[in-house]
Design a protein that fits this description.
The N terminus is likely disordered. This protein starts with 5 loop residues before the first strand and ends with a strand. The chain has a 6-stranded mixed sheet, sandwiched between helices. It has a 3-stranded antiparallel sheet with strand order 1-2-3, with helices on one face. Helix content is 23%, strand content 23%. Strand 1 and strand 2 form a beta hairpin. 28% of the residues are buried. It is α/β, with parallel strands linked by helices.
Length: 221
């Protein structure tokens, strides 16, 4: 599927090549992405599509705009391809260990220590009550992204019985901004991006034109 592909985001001067034979992810300096356990991050961690590569580059650009390279980050969620991609760009990334954030208590995240920022990329949509988690975050800067509600398709319900992948929330932009405000966060910057599909159909055309994800940078009030 990836044979011969080299994906480049010109604005970021970032090139990622994917080898079909080895399924390894290699950055522009020839370094192989590794997980915290030292194992290679393979192509399937990037969801096997061009959109994931594009999203990684957009995420990096937004993060670099607000959080300097080399900063320490607590990334909500277990080790993943995006977190390892950010680590390969110089960020010192620590991941959580699979806690059910719906049952989070105010001090549950403090054992991870203090960090320059917290990242939460596509986390809050999976929670019944993201307000409690937002109130419990120990650090003062947050970079997060959430899926926006699409009028032409229902909320994502997961595949193959994967209940953890379901979206309980798909937000309108004002809803997530209101949630952050109520939870004690001041939104400093935000952007919306599309999630283009590379299949044929009417929904594909709509996805090219309709914002699907909202990114925010927020600071505690």
């Amino acid at each position: 599927m990836y044979k011969g592909w080299v994906i480049e985001e010109v604005d970021l001067d970032t090139i990622i090549s994917i080898s079909e034979s080895s399924a390894k992810i290699i950055d522009s300096e020839g370094r192989e992405f590794l997980s915290d356990s030292g194992l290679p991050v393979h192509a399937h961690d990037f969801a096997n599509d061009r959109w994931s590569i594009r999203r990684f580059n957009i995420t990096l650009a937004f993060l670099e705009k607000h959080i300097p390279g080399g900063s320490t980050i607590l990334d909500l969620g277990t080790v993943n391809g995006l977190g390892n991609f950010l680590a390969s760009k110089g960020y010192k990334v620590t991941n959580t260990q699979g806690e059910d954030f719906d049952y989070i208590r105010p001090l549950d995240l403090w054992p991870y220590g203090r960090h320059d920022a917290i990242t939460a990329f596509e986390i809050f949509e999976h929670l019944i009550d993201p307000f409690c988690l937002l109130r419990s975050l120990p650090d003062r800067r947050l970079v997060a992204s959430v899926p926006l509600r699409l009028w032409f398709t229902p909320a994502y319900r997961g595949r193959d019985g994967n209940l953890a992948g379901r979206h309980y929330h798909e937000f309108e932009d004002w809803q997530f901004l209101w949630l952050l405000d109520k939870a004690g966060w001041r939104v400093v910057d935000s952007i919306k991006i599309t999630s283009p599909s590379f299949t044929l159909g009417l929904r594909t055309l709509l996805r090219w034109a309709t914002p699907r994800y909202l990114f925010v940078y927020a600071e505690k009030k």
